[in-house]
Amino acid sequence: FPQNEQFTCSSPFDKVHRRMHKVFQSPPSSNKLSPDTTRKKRKLFNSARFGHTLTGHSGKVMAAKFLGEASKVVTGSHDRTLKIWDLRSRACIETKFAGSSCNDLVIVDSSGSTIISGHFDKSIRFWDARSESSANNILFNGKVTSLDLTRDAKYLICCVRDDTLKLLDLRMNQVVKSFSCDGFKVGCDWTRVTFSPDGQYLAVGSADGNVYIWGVNSGKVETVLKEHSSHGLFSRSAVTATGWHPYGTMLASVDRSKKAVIWSDI
Predict the structure, then answer these.
(1) Which CATH superfamily, name and number, covers 1-12+25-139?
(2) Is domain 148-266 given the CATH code 2.130.10.10 in the classification?
(3) What is the distance between the alpha carbons of residues 258 and 245, in angstroms, rounded to a whole number?
(4) Which of 78, 187, 229, 247 could form a disulfide with 207 if both were Cys (CB 3.0 to 4.6 A apart)?
């Protein structure tokens, strides 16, 4: 969300019981910014009409976030760049050359001055929004598929294609914990991991069609949700993304077969 919370920014969700609910739609007045992974554009829209279409990337757009305010957006693409856009002029005002395909990015502070991006070359890059080059890189043992922050922006979680999740303390810029378990396998280059709203749990989908929930403090798997893989071995589809309800009372997950599941009774 930008500071005034009038817009919502979306990219291409405690312990959970296995109850399914309907999929909830955004309220009529909601506005969203969506990366377009096929048309190399970003779209700002509400439920009635598109607001802006921003064209400029030469590859798939994998992430889009508001940059501290509702008038600026940063996007990351497979064309190996990050672009900053001014929605008032509908123009790209800066291009940052990362040198590797960007799979996800997060904004660390409310002013939008610090950006962290995750890349195909197994690294995360730290950017000062006012500088053209990255200030610091951290290298992992696999491609970085997604990033997420705790609400206080002290901790960053990274999903890595070596089938691990890495927890970084951003006050030290160091990995302080690694999460993995038997059965968990990152299913694609854009698998999304998310913190629960209170920062106590992690939710991520797996190639086996399950959703794994880890306790952040314990480092252990609290539960495994199996609705996506409950129809037989050969119908399993990798779960690619999860998202928490703002109050932490429900969790949504989606898989590559276009199935979405809402989990409640958390």
Answers:
(1) YVTN repeat-like/Quinoprotein amine dehydrogenase (2.130.10.10)
(2) yes
(3) 20
(4) 187
Which SS3 state, helix, strand or coil, does residue 234 take? helix
Nearest to 72 by CA among 56, 54, 59: 54
C-alpha 152: how far from chain center: 17
* Domain ranges across the chain: 1-12+25-139, 148-266
User: Rounded to the nearest 5 degrees, what angle is found at the Cα of 150, between the Cα atoms of 145 and 153?
Assistant: 100
Per-position DSSP letters for 54-80, written without gaps between them: EE--SS-EEEEEE-SSTTEEEEEETTS
Given strand 174-179, what is the order of strands in its sheet? 144-149, 155-160, 164-169, 174-179
**pTM of the prediction?**
0.80
Q: Which range, of 87-91, 109-113, 192-196, 226-230, averages the lowest pLDDT?
A: 226-230
Taking CB atoms within 8 Å and a gap of at least 24, the contacts of 113-122 are 113/68, 115/67, 115/74, 115/82, 116/147, 116/156, 117/63, 117/76, 117/82, 117/147, 118/144, 118/145, 118/146, 118/147, 118/158, 119/143, 119/144, 120/78, 120/144, 120/189, 122/160
Residues 6 or more apart in contact with residue 67 via CB below 8 angstroms = 73, 74, 84, 107, 112, 115, 129
| Residue 228 backbone dihedrals phi, psi, to 5 degrees | -65, -25
Asked if 217 and 205 touch (Cβ cutoff 8 Å), the reply is no
CB 238 within 8 A of CB 229: no
* 125-175 confidence digits (pLDDT tens): 999 988 877 888 999 999 999 999 999 999 999 999 999 999 999 999 999
Give per-residue burial for 92-104: e unless 16+ CB within 10 Å, then b: beeebebebbbbb
